């Protein structure tokens, strides 16, 4: 029984970038997607996300059309290369160090991200983190569809999914530490006992100052 757990957001928290946007760019560079509307949709997604008004269902329904005819096995092969070439260079050294500290203390680490889970889990594995949650996409004929399965790990959905996971693991930690950069994770921050903001956006920074949360600045 662990009395403590550490929960990390992924994008702009553990890595200096947005994995969703980087993945689309990777697919574009490899000419796997050729329609510039997918790039534009990602730029709009980032803007809406930062403004706290992203329609996640609508964004994913559009974004995943590009992969709807491609087998998940093939996507996994691309993901391996993507993590190696695009993501690993963006790991914050301080993030890796912090993960190692928790590991040495046998404190369970969970990565919870509003990116699709097949991307999140691949990146988490590269960090050596076994427990990772993202937005689960329904499968059709061995391909990812644009339909979300279960509760999306977005805003208060992150708290719901964490609570579900804790119940499944039969864990009731006395202390939950959370690391994030985004105001979208405010519900998770309020659920936690201890908050570390990492390169926080303006709204989260003002919450952190108001609530006396720890503010970290991680660089590449």
From TrEMBL:
<protein>
    <submittedName>
        <fullName>HAD family hydrolase</fullName>
    </submittedName>
</protein>
<keyword id="KW-0378">Hydrolase</keyword>
<keyword id="KW-0460">Magnesium</keyword>
<dbReference type="GO" id="GO:0016787">
    <property type="term" value="F:hydrolase activity"/>
</dbReference>
<dbReference type="InterPro" id="IPR036412">
    <property type="entry name" value="HAD-like_sf"/>
</dbReference>
<keyword id="KW-0479">Metal-binding</keyword>
<dbReference type="InterPro" id="IPR050582">
    <property type="entry name" value="HAD-like_SerB"/>
</dbReference>
<dbReference type="Pfam" id="PF12710">
    <property type="entry name" value="HAD"/>
</dbReference>
<dbReference type="InterPro" id="IPR023214">
    <property type="entry name" value="HAD_sf"/>
</dbReference>
<dbReference type="InterPro" id="IPR006385">
    <property type="entry name" value="HAD_hydro_SerB1"/>
</dbReference>
